[in-house]
Amino acid sequence: TKTYQIAVLPGDGIGPEVMAEALKVLKAVSRKENVAFRTQEALVGGAAWDHYHSHLPEETLTICRESDAILFGSVGGPVREQNTPKWQGVEVHSLLGLRKAFGLFANLRPARLFPALAFASPLRQDVAREGFDILVVRELTGGIYFGQPKGRTGTGEEEKAFDTMVYSRCEIRRIAQVAFEIARKRRQKVTSIDKANVLTTMVFWRQVVEEVAADYPDVTYEPMYVDNAAMQMVKNPQQFDVLLCGNMFGDILSDEAAMLTGSLGMLPSASFAGSGFGMYEPGGGSAQDIAGQHIANPIAQILSTAMMLRYSLNMEKPARDIEKAVEKVLAEGHRTADIAGREDTPVSTGTMGDLITTAY
Amino acid sequence: TKTYQIAVLPGDGIGPEVMAEALKVLKAVSRKENVAFRTQEALVGGAAWDHYHSHLPEETLTICRESDAILFGSVGGPVREQNTPKWQGVEVHSLLGLRKAFGLFANLRPARLFPALAFASPLRQDVAREGFDILVVRELTGGIYFGQPKGRTGTGEEEKAFDTMVYSRCEIRRIAQVAFEIARKRRQKVTSIDKANVLTTMVFWRQVVEEVAADYPDVTYEPMYVDNAAMQMVKNPQQFDVLLCGNMFGDILSDEAAMLTGSLGMLPSASFAGSGFGMYEPGGGSAQDIAGQHIANPIAQILSTAMMLRYSLNMEKPARDIEKAVEKVLAEGHRTADIAGREDTPVSTGTMGDLITTAY
Lengths: 360, 360
Ligand SMILES: CC(C)[C@H](C(=O)O)[C@@H](O)C(=O)O
Ligand SMILES: CC(C)[C@H](C(=O)O)[C@@H](O)C(=O)O
What we know:
21% strand; alpha/beta; homodimer
């Protein structure tokens, strides 16, 4: 039997609870597909701080380096403790640290509105009822997040701070290729987000994306300004298939799209390097306010596990089977509290995990 | 009688039609308040191109320089002609040119959802029905739009393009002061948008805004990350009063907020300098697809005129009276096509202008 090594980083808040459910599903995959997963837990975020006074200790990086993929929970502290050393900067240190350390340049963030959950969307119900299925493909290791120089100069009224937005052709090309490849397997449309009317970087972005688009005549390519995209997203989300974005614009638009689904607890994400190595995490955050109550929705973590199988382990079939199991359980009407309608009796985190494992 | 000189720049598309209605209202203000407005028309955008081969001719700048304020219509060509010399870059040349030439650093973009027009909002009706009233205060002459250096270097795969996001203490302070002053006259809350967890510029932005906030103990100050703001805006727009933003984030969030009102044709905007000089323009754009049909909504242009009276000419009373006249006409059920419900018979651009002028 083939053996994969998975670094499991549950992190903070609801992270450990929902991770436990994802691992149940992974065990089921192991039985059904006759593969072995050697999972190795490591500390990250506030959970790591207590032991190492670091949010991303070297030991955790080592475990990740020895693995085929990282299954990540979530990091972040309670709202009222944001400014304590334990929690300050925890997301940036953990997430940007891992992205940079492993060159995770491609970030996939599906935002899918299931028609059955349309009532939870903040959109007008005639818009929401049709559902939508957007995949944000976000560049994750470049742009203004990491561009140099960054700094501060001067004093008094003339004190200034600055950051640099920068993209090279190879950075733009490789993320564009990811977007077009995936669009081929979806609805054959890529909307590339830029601000080419104002930013030099974005003029270049548009030019390189057009170069790549020429290699995919079967995929419809359309450029769109970021401000317009922020409007179109709420007006008519159905028009989008794959949304290709730089780091900063992808940060904003993926969150807008996620919120429109009304169910953050359902959204997985993947961040991978060219090698296939990747990190898989739910979109929703540590949700400290409900941690430990066993009411968190484990679906995002479970669907992240499916993405891991698909993108890092090249196991398309169990990935699909997990996704189908989730759909089946939802179709049967099972709901955790976050997606429960007024008439539903919510199930616990563990029950939802069991239901999906059984349906798989 | 006091005389004000107003530069009138109707521009393209529906610009001239809606401007004509605004000028009707301005004439009524002149009679009621015993002031004189000397309006001087000047060409801008595609309309200027035909005569000058420039989107913002020197002659237009001279007329603006001799005036107390600029009343601006809209610029922009038909979708299919975007890449012709007449239309390429027309918005950037006209708008960024005027902003820079006159130091229009403060951009106010109200996004108000009138409960009576809730049905037009893309938001779920139980959210929309409460209405909302957000004022985006956007910094307009700094940040990544104008920061230096900008450029392109290298060749082949290593070719790069870059822009610089930069803000100085005095730039941040003056726009923050505008936001806090206005919040005092509204619901006493400023939400300052940043990305202080990632960008050096935004760490500094937050620091300076906090310095300013300390001078306004009567105003609630709250920082919020831009990605979270993009989510909160669709989830719960009622939580916002004044949204203080840098140039880039303000561009994105003001458009998102505008679309949530469902009536772009109703939204005015103001852009002013420290001196009081300012430019006033509707939010909606040139809408070439409906130009010349006399169905465009003139309310945004009329409310922009009210803002001009308030901010550049220090005439609060007629500004209020215009706003009340608009509300009265809407309350009576009069609607242009863009805001008409299924049972309404839409009125023309000219009729709407007349109705408001009469109600004023
Ligand atoms: C926590 C933060 C650094 C991060 C980002 O901005 O990328 C987060 O918002 C995200 O989208 O993953
Ligand atoms: C046309 C463009 C340059 C402009 C901007 O980005 O500022 C527009 O989007 C706006 O918001 O006024």
